[in-house]
Design a protein that fits this description.
Largest sheet: 4 strands, antiparallel
Number of strands: 34
Distance between the termini: 20 Å
Shape: globular
Number of helices: 2
Oligomer: single chain
Strand content: over 45%
Low-confidence stretches: 1-38, 244-254
C-alpha cells in the first residue's frame, strides 16, 4: 500500500521544490473578443522549465527539479541529494499528493518511469533516450525503485541508458551505446530484471532477433510518444546514414534510412521500424515532430523545413499518405492532434491540418516562437508554449482565449493528470 501525505496544493509546492515552487504572477493580456482569465490556465499542463519539470494548474505553479514524468503526465518521480544518499518520492499531479520520501543509497537521478507510474529507473548521470550521446564508460549503475524503496540494483557491463519498462514490469528497455568507452551508435535491448541480463528484443512475429541482426543506430532520437492504451512506444529517429533494420539484416537487403519511427511493443517486447520517405531526415532533426491521434490509430510526422507531413497507420505500421502543406520553415517543429485536426507549430506560426483530407487549414501567428502545442481533452482549446508564456486559442480560428506568463518556460510537454 503506497504511503501518501495529504497536503494542500499550495503546501506541496514548497515541499516538493526544496526551496519552494516559484509563484509566477502577472497576466499579459492580448486583444481578444473574449476576456482572458487573469493568470489562470484552463487545463493542467506538464511543462519543462529551466529549473526542472513543472505543473501549471489554474493559478498554481509547481517546479520539481531532478524529476521525470509518466508519459501521460499523471505522476512524477523526483529526487534530491541528502548527504551521501538520495531521497526519492512520487507526486500525483492530479491531486498534488506526495508519497513518503524514501532513501536510496548513493547519488541517483530518475530517468524512466513505468507506464502505470509504479516503478522508476535511476542512474548516476543525467541522461535519457532522446538527450544525445552519453559519456564513455565501462559500466553503468542502474537502480529500480518504487515508493517503498529499492527493488533492484545493477552494475551493467557496458554503456546503457534506460528507456522504458516492459508492460509486466519484469524488464527494462535500455539503449546500449557502442563502443562503451567512445560511443557512436546504439541498439535497443531489454534487461531482464530476474536474470539481470540484457538481451535482444523480439521481431514483430514475436521470435527472438537472430545473433548479429540487432539494429545499430547512429541517428538522433528526436521525440517519443506513448500509445493511449500504454502498450506501444513510438520514437522518431532522424539522420541514419547507412542504417539497416533487423529485417534488412535478416534478409540481406541493403538499407539506408534517413528517418523512421521506431515502434516498441512494451507487452510482447518486439520492435519494428516504419521508414519515412524523402525528404524526412534530410534537414535538421529539430524541425521534425511526432503526434498521435487521441484514439491511437494514426501517427503524424511533420518536417517543418520541407513543409511535409506523413500519416502512419499504427495497425498496419506503414506510411499511408504524405502531403506538402506549406513552404519550408526554419526553426524547431512541434505537433499535436485532436480528433479531427493536426496542429503544427514552427517559428511564430501555428497551422491546422484536416486529418481526413490531409490538407492545410487555418494558420495564425503568435507573439513569440512556439515551444510546444497541447490540445485540451475536449478539443475546445489549443495551448501554445512561447517565450516565458503559455497562451490558449480556439483551435478552429486561432482566436486568443487567454495568456499567462511562465518565467523560465522551456517547453510545453502535455497535459498533467486529471482527477
Amino acid at each position: 500500500m503506497m504511503a501518501e501525505t495529504r497536503t494542500s496544493r499550495r503546501t506541496v509546492m514548497a515541499v516538493l521544490a526544496g526551496a519552494g515552487a516559484a509563484a509566477l504572477t502577472g497576466c499579459d493580456p492580448l486583444r481578444s473578443r473574449r476576456p482572458a482569465p487573469a493568470d489562470t490556465v484552463p487545463d493542467a499542463l506538464l511543462v519543462e522549465l529551466d529549473g526542472g519539470l513543472g505543473v501549471l494548474r489554474g493559478g498554481d505553479r509547481l517546479t520539481i527539479p531532478h524529476s521525470v514524468a509518466t508519459a501521460d503526465g499523471r505522476a512524477v518521480y523526483a529526487t534530491a541529494p541528502e548527504g551521501a544518499d538520495t531521497v526519492c518520492w512520487r507526486i500525483d499531479t492530479a491531486t498534488g499528493h506526495a508519497s513518503a520520501r524514501v532513501t536510496l543509497p548513493g547519488h541517483w537521478l530518475p530517468q524512466a518511469v513505468s507506464t502505470d507510474g509504479t516503478r522508476v529507473a535511476l542512474t548516476s548521470n543525467a541522461e535519457s533516450a532522446t538527450s544525445g550521446r552519453p559519456a564513455g564508460r565501462d559500466t553503468t549503475p542502474v537502480l529500480i525503485a518504487d515508493v517503498t524503496g529499492v527493488r533492484h540494483r545493477f552494475e551493467l557491463r557496458g554503456n546503457f541508458v534506460p528507456e522504458a519498462f516492459t508492460g509486466d514490469l519484469a524488464g527494462l528497455f535500455v539503449l546500449e551505446w557502442l563502443p562503451a568507452r567512445a560511443p557512436d551508435r546504439y541498439r535497443v535491448r531489454v534487461l531482464d530484471l530476474a536474470t539481470r541480463t540484457p538481451g535482444p528484443l523480439n521481431t514483430r512475429t514475436k521470435t527472438p532477433v537472430p545473433p548479429g541482426a540487432e539494429e545499430e543506430m547512429r541517428g538522433d532520437g528526436r521525440q517519443a510518444v506513448l500509445a493511449p492504451d500504454r502498450t506501444t512506444l513510438y520514437t522518431l529517429y532522424t539522420h541514419q546514414p547507412g542504417h539497416q533494420h533487423t529485417r534488412d539484416l535478416v534478409s540481406g537487403r541493403p538499407g539506408n534510412a534517413h528517418a523512421f519511427v521506431h515502434t516498441l511493443n512494451l507487452v510482447d517486447r518486439w520492435a519494428y521500424c516504419v521508414d519515412l520517405p524523402h525528404p524526412f531526415g534530410e534537414a535538421a532533426a529539430s524541425g521534425h515532430a511526432l503526434a498521435i491521434s487521441p484514439d491511437g490509430r494514426l501517427l503524424h510526422v511533420v518536417d517543418v523545413t520541407s513543409g511535409t507531413v506523413a500519416e502512419i497507420s499504427t495497425e498496419e505500421l506503414v506510411v499511408r499518405r504524405t502531403a506538402t502543406l506549406a513552404p519550408g520553415t526554419t526553426g524547431t517543429g512541434h505537433a499535436a492532434a485532436d480528433r479531427s485536426r493536426l496542429f503544427v507549430g514552427a517559428g511564430t506560426t501555428v497551422r491546422t491540418v484536416d486529418i481526413d483530407r490531409l490538407d492545410a487549414g487555418a494558420a495564425w501567428s503568435v507573439r513569440e516562437p512556439v515551444t510546444g502545442l497541447v490540445a485540451s481533452p475536449d478539443g475546445t482549446r489549443l495551448h501554445v508554449g512561447q517565450t516565458d508564456a503559455v497562451s490558449w486559442h480556439d483551435p478552429a480560428t486561432g482566436e486568443l482565449l487567454g495568456r499567462t506568463t511562465v518565467p523560465g518556460l522551456v517547453r510545453v510537454r502535455g497535459l498533467a493528470g486529471r482527477v
